[in-house]
Inverse folding.
């Protein structure tokens, strides 16, 4: 049976793992290669590394980090941040990533999705969407808006429509982050995740708001997510992917165990 | 131990090369140098992406070279599209023939409520006696990402269920294929790659 994936996310800034609430007050959370290896050992089904600053000067640092992290990692490894052209993606793949996550660059030039997919396969292209509900709209979930610049600027697109377009253009997966929920540890936005998951035929990874085991069980059941991302709940040894999955299995969620 | 890895420009080889090196093998990559196939001790054909990409194996002359190597008894492992290529063809690219080592066709998962592609960790039900999957316990998980698959036949070495039962692995003599990505399937995947690396022709002196 196909299992629900628990994905460990490492936010990286200047070659170090960091964690903050809604992209501010960053705290150092260790070396990316060490952290990725630990998460894989402790049962994470996949590792995502996001370069949250992604400056031009930082490219080489990122590629070095990806290379070091990928070296002994034998689970799927996705890298995002600062990928603006097919050439950027190619460098990240050569450094050892299996997938790239693209966000604002795909919004600016949606043909980038197709271009990367053509060279590396659709399975290698994850389109990341930063979403906020639109409280002014008649249907805040259906009309949820895409944001860029770390959730500060509206992109002028509806989330569900953009996810569909990304699929049509050849994305292999959608990584959906609720900016409302991110960092709050108050639960995923299940309604928004379900709206996107029902609108597309490709897997949807839910992100933002993980705090408890119940939150994961909810986003798989009610949110119809195929995978869920967790960052802060793992970093400081609060919980491992394995213990999370053991509890999810007891709650009836199909997960990869033993792992 | 040297392994010839075929590069036909379908996706990224880095992960496969890394896993082979981790297991102590020395991968030699060819995108058309036939001598590396002619002298191959083992051959791995990776591949992600579209079946049409295998056309490059024909235009570079790699197809007949691989066919000859297989006939000589060289152990061969196809991964993902590399496994599908062992069949007669795939409905993904109906005009592009496969190797035809297995006579069936690969087909897309049928339309239904489930998502296609099949992405993620799914369990293996391995056939007893499979040498490629020796030591893989029932229900061990491996990582898949694909929309097309081979049918379950007498050559199927492991079955996985998604929408319907399909061939997760195929094996006949020295010719093996896996629909999943052993290089991305943790300890289980490394065990399978390792089985391939130690595979020997039964009865041969070497």
């Amino acid at each position: 049976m196909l299992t629900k994936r628990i994905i460990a996310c490492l936010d990286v800034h200047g070659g170090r793992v960091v964690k903050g609430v809604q992209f501010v007050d960053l705290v150092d959370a260790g070396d990316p290669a060490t952290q990725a290896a630990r998460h894989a050992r402790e049962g994470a089904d996949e590792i995502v590394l996001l370069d949250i600053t992604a400056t031009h000067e930082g490219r080489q640092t990122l590629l070095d980090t990806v290379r070091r992290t990928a070296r002994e990692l034998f689970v799927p490894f996705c890298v995002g941040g600062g990928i603006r052209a097919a050439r950027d993606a190619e460098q990240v793949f050569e450094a050892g990533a299996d997938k790239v996550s693209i966000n604002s660059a795909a919004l600016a030039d949606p043909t980038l999705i197709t271009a990367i997919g053509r060279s590396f396969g659709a399975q290698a292209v994850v389109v990341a969407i930063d979403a906020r509900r639109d409280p002014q709209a008649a249907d805040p979930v259906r009309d949820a808006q895409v944001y860029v610049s770390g959730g500060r600027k509206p992109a002028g697109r509806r989330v569900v429509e953009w996810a569909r377009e990304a699929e049509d253009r050849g994305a292999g997966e959608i990584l959906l982050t609720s900016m409302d929920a991110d960092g709050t540890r108050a639960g995923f936005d299940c309604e928004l995740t379900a709206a996107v998951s029902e609108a597309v035929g490709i897997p949807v990874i839910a992100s933002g708001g993980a705090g408890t085991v119940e939150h994961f069980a909810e986003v798989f059941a009610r949110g119809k997510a195929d995978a869920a991302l967790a960052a802060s709940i793992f970093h400081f040894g609060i919980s491992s992917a394995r213990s999370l999955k053991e509890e999810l299995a007891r709650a009836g969620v199909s997960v990869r165990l033993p792992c | 131990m040297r392994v010839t890895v075929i590069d036909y420009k379908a996706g990224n080889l880095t992960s496969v090369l890394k896993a082979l090196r981790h297991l102590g093998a020395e991968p030699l990559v060819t995108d058309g140098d036939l001598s590396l196939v002619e002298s191959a001790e083992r051959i791995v054909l990776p591949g992600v992406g579209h079946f049409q990409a295998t056309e490059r194996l024909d235009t570079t002359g790699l197809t007949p070279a691989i066919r000859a190597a297989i006939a000589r008894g060289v152990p061969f492992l196809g991964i993902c599209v590399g496994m599908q290529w062992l069949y007669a063809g795939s409905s993904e690219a109906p005009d592009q023939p496969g190797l035809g080592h297995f006579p069936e066709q690969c087909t897309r998962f049928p339309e239904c409520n489930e998502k296609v592609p099949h992405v993620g960790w799914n369990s293996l039900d391995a056939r007893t006696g499979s040498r490629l999957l020796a030591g893989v316990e029932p229900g061990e998980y491996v990582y898949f990402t694909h929309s097309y698959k081979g049918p379950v036949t007498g050559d199927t070495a492991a079955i996985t269920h998604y929408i319907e039962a399909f061939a997760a692995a195929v094996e006949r003599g020295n010719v093996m294929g896996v629909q999943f990505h052993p290089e991305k399937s943790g300890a289980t995947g490394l065990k399978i790659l390792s089985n391939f690396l130690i595979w020997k022709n039964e009865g041969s002196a070497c």
User: Anything to note?
Assistant: The interface with chain B takes residues 1-5, 40, 45, 70-72, 74-76, 93-96, 98, 119-124, 172-173, 201-203, 226-227, 256, 259 of chain A (CB under 8 Å).
